[in-house]
UniProtKB/TrEMBL annotation, chain A:
<dbReference type="InterPro" id="IPR050601">
    <property type="entry name" value="CPA3_antiporter_subunitC"/>
</dbReference>
<dbReference type="Pfam" id="PF00420">
    <property type="entry name" value="Oxidored_q2"/>
</dbReference>
<feature type="transmembrane region" description="Helical">
    <location>
        <begin position="75"/>
        <end position="97"/>
    </location>
</feature>
<feature type="transmembrane region" description="Helical">
    <location>
        <begin position="6"/>
        <end position="22"/>
    </location>
</feature>
<keyword id="KW-0812">Transmembrane</keyword>
<feature type="transmembrane region" description="Helical">
    <location>
        <begin position="29"/>
        <end position="55"/>
    </location>
</feature>
<dbReference type="InterPro" id="IPR039428">
    <property type="entry name" value="NUOK/Mnh_C1-like"/>
</dbReference>
<protein>
    <submittedName>
        <fullName>NADH-quinone oxidoreductase subunit K</fullName>
    </submittedName>
</protein>
<keyword id="KW-1133">Transmembrane helix</keyword>
Automatic annotation (TrEMBL), chain B:
<feature type="transmembrane region" description="Helical">
    <location>
        <begin position="281"/>
        <end position="299"/>
    </location>
</feature>
<dbReference type="Pfam" id="PF00361">
    <property type="entry name" value="Proton_antipo_M"/>
</dbReference>
<feature type="transmembrane region" description="Helical">
    <location>
        <begin position="26"/>
        <end position="45"/>
    </location>
</feature>
<dbReference type="GO" id="GO:0005886">
    <property type="term" value="C:plasma membrane"/>
</dbReference>
<keyword id="KW-1003">Cell membrane</keyword>
<keyword id="KW-0812">Transmembrane</keyword>
<dbReference type="InterPro" id="IPR001750">
    <property type="entry name" value="ND/Mrp_TM"/>
</dbReference>
<keyword id="KW-0472">Membrane</keyword>
<feature type="transmembrane region" description="Helical">
    <location>
        <begin position="158"/>
        <end position="178"/>
    </location>
</feature>
Amino acid sequence: MTAVVLAAVVGALFALGTFLLLRRDLIRVVWGLAIISQAANVYLLSMGGIAAGTADSVPVLAGHGDHVPETADPLVQALVLTAIVIGFGMTAFALVLSYRVYEEHDTLDVSDLGDRE
Amino acid sequence: MTISTLTADTALVTLAALPAGTESQLVIAPMLIVLVAAVGSLLLSRWPRARIGVSLAGGAAYAIAVAAIDWYVVLAPDAPGIATYQVGDLPAPFGITLVVDGLSAFMLTMVAVLGIASLIFSTRVLPEIDRRSYYFPLFHFLALGVTGAFLTGDLFNLFVWFEVMLMASYIFVAYYGGPQHTRAAFWYVALNLLASAVFLLAVGGIYATTGTLNMADLSRRLADPAAYGIEPAPVVGLFALLLSVFAIKAGLVPFQFWIPTAYRAAPPQITALLAGATKKVGIYAIIRLSFTVFADADVPVELAVPGTELAVSGDSPLVFVGSALFVMAAASILVGGVGAVGRESIEGVLAYSSIAQVGFIAIPVAIAATAPELRHLAVVAALVYALNHTLAKGLLFLAVGAVRSATGTSRLADLGGLAGRSPPLAIGFFVGALALVGIPPLSGFFGKFLVFDAAARVGSAPVVGLLLLGSLLTIAYMTRTWNRSFWGVQTDAVENAAVDGVQVGVVVALAVAIVAVGVGFEPVYEFADAAATAALDSEAYVEAVDPIEPGEFESEGGEH
């Protein structure tokens, strides 16, 4: 059940992100990118396995023999933490850059940007 | 100047610690040096001269460290050929592994040579006010990202180093801050953010499928999936995702559209690095993952070519990679070559040419992936061609930088008669152009020769024909650029040009390097040969990194 919900959430996020990415407004493009990177993060997190961790499902925990506590896979959490930080910085940079684009071009409309060399 | 002596000390300390066995601190030396240089130049923002001093010292120390790696790890008579560094002394696959083998060393050497040239060039290009900006720290962070990507031993860290490299390059594309620069930078950022998400998807999928991200561990598990209880089939699709990400970095068609605008927007000496170094990171990642990691995966692949009876089949993901690369490389050669012929500025020509040339590098990689018996020769061809492209394209972009800072323009319509204004610059550009075309005895000749050799041995007439067409296009657009900018009547811009001696000196030095590589090709070939051997020998790679089995960790404790 959880797996289906997560899959649906990831799918919906990607759909929404792609939709926004294809808008003409630059801010929506940035929103789209942010949502897509969050979708990738949720996906990455779910790749650790949704069931309670055992030596079979969580490779890193296998090193601890059979006495595996019920826990999620810590590795994907570490990966996602890194990915979130990077994605956060990138989104901030993209926002600043879109403000700069607005200053330079007086517009945030993608189709107007393309016309000026 | 304390920071610069610190940098030099770091180099000396690591030089003294020669590799014992296959573990060596030398592996991490280039990254540490460039990190110290980045932080040092960041702290010295109030003292432009000291900042430049630290930057140059960092660059020199980096070159020394790379040369030491080349000698002690790869080229010396009793060199181990491969060395690792387990960060924090955590054993692979749990810790972060840094690995240097022939392939990484070859790539690092290319980047070091071009990086030094670009760095010296930078010190002469920036006006006084710009030297106070974050140019030099960013330059070092770019180098740090590239170095990290070459040295890392696991997929997620590859992602991280890609991001480090990209963050610096985003800012360089937007560096001048004019309308076309911000626009180019925005699309460059947007595309790469999307690519990063795709990269994460592939990394997550590979972890879920195989249970590891360490490249050596991955290679070992994929070679014997049954022993590890994994089902390797999804790896082909995930590898395809990775391939698209790397193709974006390398600028292969259909992912080439960001290149012309981004290359025109960035400062020319940075464009030289983008074309010569970050592009090669994409190529390196394709070669490393294809031949060291995924080559032994035992997955039956059957691809029907739509609309025909033809099918591509084999028992490794490489079959798929090879076919996809063939198509992308062929399209790159055509799109880049045809696009370059009609450009209005020298940068435009070189940017499109860069798309075409990366096709020439990808063709032998594709041959290597599809024809196992030619694999070694084809990888050598790709590496030698990549080396030539780095030197020649780096030289040409730096020459454009010199032209632009002398005349204020790089539009072909505003140029003419540059050869009379500055003969050394003209000779440098000419050598670069000839190397790109592939005239003996320059480095380009051997690159082209090996690529044609590999294609001829496959016996595929269309591929040879395509390469010939690509070469003819190269001759066409380089001749046109040369005639329009260096020959003919001197225009006003050229007559009033103030050519900078150091800039021209850097261009000439790279031209000498191209001639030297061509004339003394034997050692270069041996190095490329060692690099190709290292790339194809996944057993030695696994052995050197030595990922321990899950379950072994507890018994071995921390002594490993």
